Task: structure prediction
Amino acid sequence: MHIKRVPDGGRVLTVALIAGIAALAVLDCMTGTRLRLALIASVMPLIAARLCSFRRTVVVAAVFAVAQTVIHCVIVPRWDVASVLVAVLGALLVGGFAVALCAALLEREAAYDRTRMVADAVQRTMLRELPITAGLLRIAGFYISAQEGARVGGDIYEVVESPYGQRILIGDVQGKGMLAIGAGHAVLTSFREAAYHEAALEAVADHMEGALLRHNSALSLTGTDERFVTALLLEVGPPGTTTRVLSCGHIPYYVISGDRVEERLPEHHGLPLGLGGLTGAPRRAVDSAACRTGPASPEWLVLCTDGVTEARDPEGRFYPLRERLTRWVRLPPAELARALRADLEAFTEGELKDDAAVLIVRDALACGESMPRSAAGRPVSSASPAPPAPRGGPTAPPSAPARR
Result:
């Protein structure tokens, strides 16, 4: 656990430490030579070194050294000169050690802060902050890493606005730690590229699997175990269209409609990414009536990883996600995400054994927002109709508008 310094350099704490040193010195004067209470004050400069600024640590150390010098030179006159010099030198050494310790700790904390800033920047690049707005979709949720101090782990998610609709990914990498992060990054970067250029979800999944296989091949050269990734892909098209779903061995998702919560798993769900070659069967996306965009489509989706559904309380009971969703179906997505996260952490008493991710996907119109309109007053969507894919060749992205 990283202990932070007191705000404002520890002004109040500095005054308290100096008052403690003075109080012990006065008590030492009152108790005579038999009891040396002032020696207890030697911990005061060390406390300042850990919690106060460098300047205030110097002040506390100086006050301690002066107090000890006065006590040993005035209150203990029976000591010989050598004993007094040793006592005063000891006080100076304690004060000097506290100042040096403070300088070393501040330097280490500065290096830690720089490293943390770089790590946070890298982690934010890998996973975007929630909530996310994509066309007519509003995606709320949360991410909890099982590794203390880490912002990302073995779970992944992403939302891409493509010419074919909003494409959503949620996935779970086998295992956790740095190796899981590497495999997740390989899948994520592939999805971000393929989700925009490929017309079919099946092709997007093939690109993701190819990226993971190349990543595993590189790992095998170092003797590291290969990884697989479960993933769920969704494609939400223009208003009135159905959602396309492709599951790569991922757990079911949930559809909320009114007060009803329904658990769904695509009829054709394949093996996890990285294991697709075991059967040779092609992956297939299926149509789902869930999450249609438009004011007449109140359904919304909840996607998650098994870190949520397999979370246990101290008695070994699994987290009842469906029951909780039924209880909170009337909450807006952002409030639902906060309620789920707080309840999950309370249910496990803060002892999550695996990374946990939740995405709550809802149409902006169902949330009460108005649809953006064109200059002619017609409703528009950020998702353009999918261009026809040419036969016998790769799909080319639509041409960008010419710059004026």
